[in-house]
Write a structure and sequence with these properties.
The complex is a heterodimer of chains A (252) and B (295). Chain A has 252 residues and is α/β, with parallel strands linked by helices. Chain A has a domain at 1-79 and 199-252: P-loop containing nucleotide triphosphate hydrolases (Rossmann fold, 3-Layer(aba) Sandwich). Chain A is 37% helix and 23% strand. In chain A, a hairpin with a 2-residue loop joins strand 4 (62-67) and strand 5. In chain A, helix 5 packs parallel to helix 6. Chain A is globular. Chain B is mainly α. Chain B has two domains: 1-58, no CATH class; 71-294, MetI-like (MetI-like fold), CATH 1.10.3720. Chain B has eleven helices and no strands. The two termini of chain B are 23 Å apart. Classes of the chains: A alpha/beta (252), B mainly alpha (295). At the A-B interface, helix 2, strand 6 and helix 3 of A face helix 8 and helix 9 of B.
Chain lengths: 252, 295
């Protein structure tokens, strides 16, 4: 069913509310293969909820989500099968505290993808090596720094070879001196052609790495375009005000 | 008092306990409490217990009570029958405990399943828990132990022992299921999201991500239930099962001497006091581990 040449991810008219509160109010977004899309906007604008909806962690109220030309939203799709083709990394790492780093990384390949333990561990060790965590493979997450935990979480997401990687403010919970090591990995992934949608407050990073930046406000994408346009010459008043506040805080 | 550094693996703070805390040697404990404090504790303990003993021994009917309850000859005479009964208590306890841990986990898992398809299972487990938590154990024993065999259903066991243990399992599982459920609820929602996002099914997320953490969180509460069950197996005596209490009653009915009850009491204490101490020790160790983790 996968349509050749179809965009990697298409979202149309996505709406989501929690009770009476509308969190996403008609989102349209197309992400092409090998493209990096950055979602920016004030806290509570719906960035995280959008990522959780794409990963089918939250049921949506209206609209559709297509992954590589294949419908993944709605009641008649196999949500587990769709989730296996994507991966999400969370702000607070969410590693499993009762499992070693290696078991954290190999759990999904072994249990959801039917890979043998031996093979899964080989793949995992290659990734951990690449992320500078080879010597931490047998440690429990609590023994790792925040930056190391987040790198392990990214390895856990990547080990199954996702078609799209979703990153939800992955550096927001880190001490400033640990942010760099995590951003370096994301840069490397972007250079390697990984399709990514990421919510971030790191504007400088977004400008460097994104093909497309979406400014969100109150559950809508108010403005979208190449970084130079959205960050350099925003057309919308709210975007300008948001960027002004961010630059006043010294983060641009 | 606190300037003595606690030994490796000890809890440095917290209220002084009745017992040395986990990993503390008696010497460390004395050092922490101070020699003067230990002396005061020893003297006051001896004084209180001596006064109690003197008070009881000087009660007007003490000689008769001593004859009735603490007669060495009756003790020796009733011991074999009561001990044989107690061995049955121990076996009932072990079988029931294993069955409770397994069955209540199943009930708790059914109750935690999400999605409309599982509604009947959730409803069933809630009904079961409400019903068995709401009925006094002794009533449940009488109803099941006498009622079900009376039906005379073909293929259904009629033994009071079988229905006694089954009722214990059903009643205790209702409580234990809630213990497990509180453990499941104590695992952050983000752990479930994390597991589901990796493509694990609802069941796999529970099995590999949630339950291992949940069970670890409730081990102290489970141990507490274990100590309690160890004594409650004696209630099966109301069905005529010849366990320790029943054996003691039989002896009393024959001899009009109550020493056999003291024999049963001693036997239960031999098991339940160490079990309670172990539960305390484990809980303290668990607390220390968490505090270290939080630091």
């Amino acid at each position: 069913m996968t349509a050749e040449g179809a965009p990697q991810l298409v979202i149309e008219g996505l709406r989501k509310s929690f009770g009476a509160k509308v969190v996403l109010d008609g989102i349209d977004l197309t992400v092409n293969r090998h493209e990096v899309v950055c979602l920016i906007g004030p806290s509570g604008c719906g960035k995280s909820t959008l990522l959780r909806c794409i990963n089918l962690l939250e049921p949506i109220d209206a609209g559709r989500i297509d992954l590589a030309g294949q419908r993944i939203s709605g009641p008649r799709v196999d949500a587990n099968a769709a989730r296996k083709r994507m991966a999400i990394v969370f702000q607070s790492f969410n590693l499993f505290p009762h499992l070693t780093v290696l078991d954290n990384v190999t759990l999904a390949p072994r249990k959801a993808h039917g890979v043998t333990r031996r093979e899964a561990e080989q793949q995992a060790l290659v990734l951990l090596e690449r992320f500078g965590l080879a010597d931490k493979a047998r440690e429990y997450p609590e023994r790792l720094s925040g930056g190391q935990q987040q790198r392990a979480a990214i390895a856990r997401a990547l080990v199954v070879g996702p078609e799209v990687l979703l990153l939800d403010e992955v550096t927001s919970a880190l001490d400033p001196e640990l942010v760099g090591e995590v951003l370096a990995i994301i840069r490397e992934l972007a250079a390697g052609g990984m399709t990514m949608v990421l919510a971030t407050h790191e504007m400088g990073f977004a400008r460097d790495v994104a093909n497309q930046i979406c400014f969100m406000h109150a559950g809508r994408i108010l403005e979208a375009g190449p970084p130079a346009q959205v960050l350099g010459d925003p057309t919308h008043e709210r975007t300008r005000r948001f960027l002004q506040r961010v630059s006043d805080a010294g983060r641009l | 008092m606190r300037d003595v550094p606690p030994a490796e693996g000890t809890v440095g703070s917290g209220p002084p306990g009745l017992w040395p805390r986990a990993g503390t040697s008696v010497r460390d404990w004395l050092a922490q409490e101070g020699a003067k404090g230990a002396t005061i504790a020893a003297v006051s303990t001896v004084a209180v217990f001596a006064a109690l003993v003197w008070w009881i021994a000087n009660s007007p009917n003490w000689p008769r009570v001593q004859q009735q309850f603490f007669n060495p000859e009756n003790f020796a005479e009733s011991w074999p029958a009561v001990f044989a009964g107690f061995w049955l208590n121990v076996r009932m306890f072990l079988i029931a405990q294993v069955a409770i841990l397994v069955f209540s986990l199943l009930v708790a898992v059914l109750r935690s399943l999400r999605g409309p398809a599982f509604f009947p299972l959730r409803l069933l487990s809630v009904l079961y828990i409400d019903l068995f938590r709401g009925v006094p154990l002794i009533l449940a024993l009488l109803l099941f132990g006498f009622g079900i065999p009376a039906l005379g259903l073909p293929g259904v066991p009629r033994s009071a022992l079988f229905w006694g243990v089954t009722t214990l399992v059903l009643s205790y599982s209702a409580y234990t299921a809630e213990v497990y459920r509180s453990g499941i609820d104590s695992v952050p929602e983000s752990q479930r999201s994390s597991a589901r996002s990796l493509g694990l099914t609802q069941w796999q997320a529970l099995r590999y991500a949630i339950l291992p953490q949940a069970v670890r969180n409730v081990v102290p509460a489970l141990l507490n239930g274990l100590v309690s069950l160890q004594k409650d197996v004696a209630l099966v005596s109301v069905l005529g099962v010849r366990e320790a209490v029943r054996a003691a009653e039989i002896y009393t009915a024959r001899t009009f001497n109550y020493t056999s009850f003291v024999v049963a009491t001693v036997l239960f204490l031999i098991i339940s006091v160490p079990a309670a101490r172990f539960a305390d020790w484990y809980t303290a160790r668990d607390r220390a581990r968490r505090q270290q983790l939080a630091a």
